[in-house]
Specification:
globular
Length: 811
């Protein structure tokens, strides 16, 4: 049995020669706790209690020896808060949360702690020490809740996924101790902190802290061919040994030559070999600390994170001489963001049932898709989109080339997917992806890549290079999992940021891609997203950057307003699904039609408006009247509602995005999560013949939006306050919207009216009807000059049929 009635919770270095030890609860003894550095029990050079407020910097509060509790906010971490202009309140279980806002009794006041400017609230601790533990957070007078870091030692998550701080009476700051050592700690050693007087009590690993994650190198990484030699470098600061293995015969990897690599002073390892080894295969093996924070295994083959090509998910990497690669197509003029109409698509979904005679291995990948893009029948070209957003094409973790996978489990961020290549052992995926991008460009389509930098797949090569450095985890080494994929990349680590930026830059320079959609961008963090933007705009000033602005941890769309990113607008998606079924409100209709101004988008093209993506059900499955949620055989109302969706999507300010196949009512037969279901995801092009009118309707709307007549829908900057005018049927969401109502952008105007209800409705337009309106489209078709179809005249009471819409314009 241990001599002590509490345990050592965790220990970490804050500098090479010092750090913090955390006990499981406050230490109440007068003498300092008998702690030592193990495994041999060496005494520390010094040991002392931390300052009271040190704990509060992470936990939002601390308690002093007189029983006073102090809640405080570090102003240096919140530059957006001006203490003279912004009121901040303490809110929690103890004051009914929202009720604290505006109550001066709960307002934080300007103060200083150890010379640091803070906002402070002080009280007797006893009123907050109750069971269960009281939760709290800080909120502004404008009801903006300040986020609680997920890594805070007292962060707790509620049932809705929100983080709050928790007050623990047993952990008030007196459970923390600062230590120093006589010399810098060897980061490659398996050191522990233990009780000096009880070797049987549980010891904890001593891990490097935040300073370690800023360790970085600046030399080129990966396999570099230059000057008659091939140079290999890998950043692995905690490795004890590192060996390079190379071979020119894929069938004789066991006979590979091996070389010890040399440790550099910057955390990288290096080996230089004579000769140009273009086309050779290579991998690494590493050894290092084997504990909760290290997965080192000297027998495990590691794929270089900077390998430009790989034979498969296990590797090996393939050495490529940049001078032997074809140049990228960098001459394509990427359309302006407000002019884009995007189709999200998956390589194999596009190809599985394409009406071309192709060998199976060609149909599965880049070359097959390139042939389809070059075909005169290429569906996306006939639809009229000018950008394609390809689901991940970086090397991912499907076990065999034939296995279907969405690609959201990456194992390398430089190498194109080997399973999409005809000869991956010859790195043909590099040339094949280059040719695919060029083919899209010939079609006038920008190429955007969906990229996943928030987690890795299997095998986790990067985790075996350094689990602690590259991955978020708690004090016991348990991996964070806000991606819901088993791990979260520690993007704040300097070399993780560099890896992201370098690989994105690589895809622009080597493949000529036009932009990226960043999966679960909230997990990357605002600082990293800004760094990516700055770096990529140096390489390609017009690069398209789109964020999926959420994760299972939170949502950052509001924070992205001050950046050059557009964001997938999930609010728009939910609104339009609801609206076409008779739901939502007049206010929401006006808000989303104007491009989600204010809280979501600071400029028009910052909102990516969509109603279907790869995730979840398809549009038609989500809105069908069929009771089983299967839209494979849609009802007439399902089709009409889809036409309304298309019309609203195309007149909404922002960047419209369709999922491939939406124009022919693609269904996944009601299935929700189909990331491994190639059979359900494959585009059934025969539906073009079943629903030709719907496809034509989508194509006509896209053509109108992209043409001269649709220029009022493609706004570069926010128009004036009178640009839009809305009219609603009384007590209804049946709406009419006039674009350029004030004629501030010329004499042309657009009138769009829509009725999502099951009854015919009239909308009072008043004087707005007194213009030379010419009907352009209704809910079924676009009209051509000379058509004999009935053309509706705009009257003061505008008639809109049930599940109907119309578009008019003036010259």
């Amino acid at each position: 049995m241990s001599l002590h009635d509490q345990r050592i919770a965790q220990a970490w270095l804050t500098a090479p020669d010092g750090g913090i030890i955390e006990l499981s609860r406050d230490w109440t003894g007068e003498a300092l706790p008998p702690l030592a550095l193990g495994p041999d029990g060496r005494p520390f050079a010094s040991l002392a209690r931390v300052a009271d407020h040190t704990f509060g910097c992470e936990s939002g509060y601390f308690v002093n020896t007189w029983g006073e509790i102090f809640f405080f906010l570090q102003l240096g971490h919140h530059p957006d808060i001006d203490p003279a202009a912004t009121a901040v309140y303490l809110a929690g279980d103890f004051n009914d949360w929202q009720q604290a806002v505006g109550n001066p009794d709960w307002r934080l006041l300007p103060a200083s702690l150890d010379g640091e400017a803070v906002l402070l609230f002080a009280a007797h601790a006893s009123r907050f020490f109750t069971a269960p533990a009281q939760r709290f957070k800080f909120v502004t007078g404008a009801h903006r809740w300040l986020p609680v870091p997920a890594q805070a030692p007292n962060a707790v998550r509620d049932d809705l996924g929100n983080y709050n701080y928790a007050i623990d009476p047993a952990r008030t700051g007196r459970h923390l101790f600062r230590f120093t050592t006589t010399e810098p700690v060897d980061l490659t050693a398996e050191l522990v902190v233990r009780w000096a007087d009880d070797a049987t009590a549980g010891a904890v690993p001593l891990r490097p802290g935040e300073f370690f994650f800023q360790t970085k190198c600046h030399v080129p990484l990966g396999a570099q061919v230059a000057g008659g030699e091939t140079i290999f470098r890998l950043f692995a600061p905690r490795a004890r040994s590192l060996r390079l293995h190379i071979c020119d015969d894929l069938q004789r990897l066991d006979a590979a030559a091996s070389y010890d690599m040399d440790r550099r002073s910057d955390g990288a390892w290096e080996a230089r070999l004579d000769g140009n080894l273009h086309g050779w295969y290579y991998w690494y093996t590493l050894d290092g600390p084997r504990n909760a924070f290290g997965l080192y295994d000297p027998n495990r083959r590691i794929l270089d994170p900077y390998a430009w090509a790989a034979v498969g998910r296990e590797g090996p990497g393939i050495i490529l001489d940049r001078s032997r690669l074809a140049p990228a197509d960098r001459g394509f003029h990427t359309p302006s963001w407000q002019d884009l109409v995007i189709a999200e698509a998956h390589v194999r979904d596009l190809m599985a049932q394409v009406p071309l005679k192709l060998k199976p291995e060609v149909r599965r990948g880049f070359t097959g898709l390139r042939q389809w893009v070059d075909s005169p029948d290429f569906h996306l070209a006939r639809l009229g989109v000018n950008a394609v957003e390809l689901q991940p094409v970086q090397e991912f973790d499907n076990a065999t080339p034939e296995e279907y996978h969405w690609g959201y489990m990456p194992v390398n961020w430089f190498a194109p997917a080997s399973s999409y290549a005809l000869a991956p052992e010859k790195a043909s995926q590099v040339r094949e992806l280059q040719e695919l991008v060029t083919a899209f460009h010939r079609r006038g389509m920008a190429v955007l890549l969906d990229v996943v930098y928030n987690h890795v797949g299997v095998p986790p090569h990067l985790m075996q290079v350094d689990k602690l450095y590259y991955f978020e985890q708690d004090g016991a080494g348990h991996l964070a999992n806000w991606s819901a994929c088993g791990n979260d990349l520690r993007t704040r680590a300097a070399m993780a940021r560099r890896l992201i930026v370098d690989s994105l830059t690589h895809y622009i320079e080597v493949y000529g891609v036009d932009g990226f959609r960043l999966d679960l961008a909230e997990l990357l963090g605002m600082e990293v997203l800004r760094e990516i933007e700055i770096a990529l705009k140096r390489v390609k000033p017009d690069v398209v950057l789109i964020a999926e602005p959420w994760s299972f941890r939170g949502h950052i769309a509001q924070d992205l307003r001050t950046t050059g990113y557009a964001s997938w607008n999930d609010g728009y998606r939910n609104f339009l699904r609801d609206y076409v079924r008779g739901g939502s409100t007049q206010e929401m209709f006006a808000y989303f039609l104007q491009g989600s101004p204010g809280l979501f988008a600071a400029w028009p093209a910052q909102t990516v408006n969509y109603t279907e993506s790869h995730d979840d059900r398809t549009w038609i499955d989500g809105i069908t009247e069929n009771s089983d949620g299967n839209g494979l055989h849609p009802t007439l109302n399902d089709i009409r509602r889809t036409h309304l969706m298309c019309a609203i999507l195309m007149v909404s300010i922002g960047m419209p995005m369709l999922a491939a196949g939406q124009d022919f009512l693609r269904s996944k037969q009601g299935a929700n999560n189909t990331y491994l279901r190639g059979d359900l995801n494959a585009l059934d092009y025969r539906r073009l013949y079943r629903f030709p009118a719907t496809h034509a309707y989508f194509a006509d709307w896209i053509a109108f939006r992209r043409g001269q007549c649709g220029r009022l829908l493609r706004q570069y900057s926010r128009p004036g306050g009178n640009f839009f005018r809305f009219h609603f049927a009384p007590g209804s969401t049946v709406a009419a919207a006039i674009f350029n109502a004030d004629q501030s952008q010329g004499s042309s105007r657009l009138l769009f009216a829509v009725n999502p209800t099951l009854q015919d409705v009239e909308i009072p337009l008043g004087d707005a009807a007194h213009a030379s309106w010419r009907q352009v489209a209704d809910h079924d078709r676009f009209f051509q000059l000379g058509d004999h179809e009935p053309i509706q005249v705009v009257e003061e009471e505008l008639f809109v049929p049930a599940l109907g819409c119309g578009l008019w314009m003036t010259e």
